[in-house]
Amino acid sequence: MTQFKDIYAGRKPALSVEIFPPKTEQSWANLQTELTHLVAHRPAFVSVTYGAGGSTRAKTLELVEMIHTRFQVMSVPHFTCVGSSRDDVRDYVDRVLAQGVRNLVALRGDPPQGDAQFAPVPDGFRYANELVAFIKGYTAELDIAVAGYPEGHVECRHLVQDVENLKRKVDAGASVVLTQLFYGNADFLRFRDEATRAGIKAPIVPGIMPITRFSQIQRITSLCGAHIPDALSAALLRHEDGSPAQQAAGIEYTIEQCRELLDHGVPGLHVFTLNNNHATSRLVDALGSYFD
Asked: Buried b vs exposed e over 259-290: b needs ≥16 C-beta within 10 Å?
């Protein structure tokens, strides 16, 4: 079974995509159509999130299994500390291993809606590095990816301190870092340089969210603490929100952003698809020579 460490050992950058479990039967049907297009780009893996507090955890594993069996593509579930005791972690890991999965994205997760701060459940974990260490102590069969924050975590805006937190996760056993979305490449490159100075040797893969609706990106960045460069905002605001012209401008910006990142030697791109293949397909079609 291929693992993260194998994927990022190659010379060519790796493409990966992220999706989430739909909530309705129609959305499930739509996603299968979207996946048909997404997997045509031969992603190294598809990661699958779950809802707040693990609310779609079973659906996540169901979707992971479907992607593997129907599309023959490596699929990777997410897992967070939110609402999870040590027994919950053991149970989830056992189920993951029973499905033949050998990779996991391990995150602390956001505080449940309505909570100002994150608080672990009894016998749970406060930080992602604790979760990673526990999983690696429980089984040697899983390769683990963790999150990185080019502009600092929303709860830790000091870059050096945030990179120290990242190093704890890598030292606990993580093999790869998948970053939060960002739109200023200078932020990513500064973050990568700081991680190198801190002694982090794990591949750092930029997380990319193509822009198709300005209001949507405003909402997402306000939650995660990323910023939208003024020039990008101005270019998008020339067009009606969500219009084909705004989509074209947003996707073109993302293509140029990714081209610059690839020219700077990133080990891959991790695309947050929002369960829509259109922008991802445009992106990969434009950047195909980097992945061929």
From this structure: eebbeeebbbbbbbbbbbbebbbbbbebbeeb
Q: Is 65 among the catalytic positions?
A: no
Which CATH number is 4-291's, of 3.40.50.1110, 1.10.10.10, 3.20.20.220, 3.30.930.10? 3.20.20.220
| 267 close to 10: Cβ distance less than 8 angstroms | no
Measured on CA atoms in the order 119, 225, 20, 287, is the torsion positive or negative? negative
Q: Are 45 and 16 in contact (CB under 8 A)?
A: yes
Q: Where are the domains of the chain?
A: 4-291
What pTM does this model have? 0.94
Residue 226 is classified by DSSP as -
Are the C-beta atoms of residues 63 and 75 closer than 8 Å to each other? yes
- Cβ within 8 Å of residue 183, ≥6 positions away: 221, 226, 227, 228, 229, 232, 253, 257
From the CB of residue 73, how many other CB atoms can be counted at a distance below 10 Å? 17
Return the sign of the alpha-carbon dihedral for residues 181, 186, 187, 192: positive
Q: Which residue in the list 18, 25, 62, 164 is annotated as catalytic?
A: 18
What does each of the 292 residues of the chain score in pLDDT, given as a tens digit? 799 999 999 889 999 999 999 888 888 889 989 999 999 999 999 999 976 555 567 789 999 999 999 999 999 999 988 888 899 999 999 999 999 999 999 998 776 665 667 777 788 888 899 999 999 999 999 999 999 999 987 776 678 888 999 999 999 999 999 999 999 999 999 999 999 999 999 999 999 999 999 999 999 998 888 999 999 999 999 999 999 999 999 999 999 999 999 999 999 999 999 998 999 999 999 998 898 7
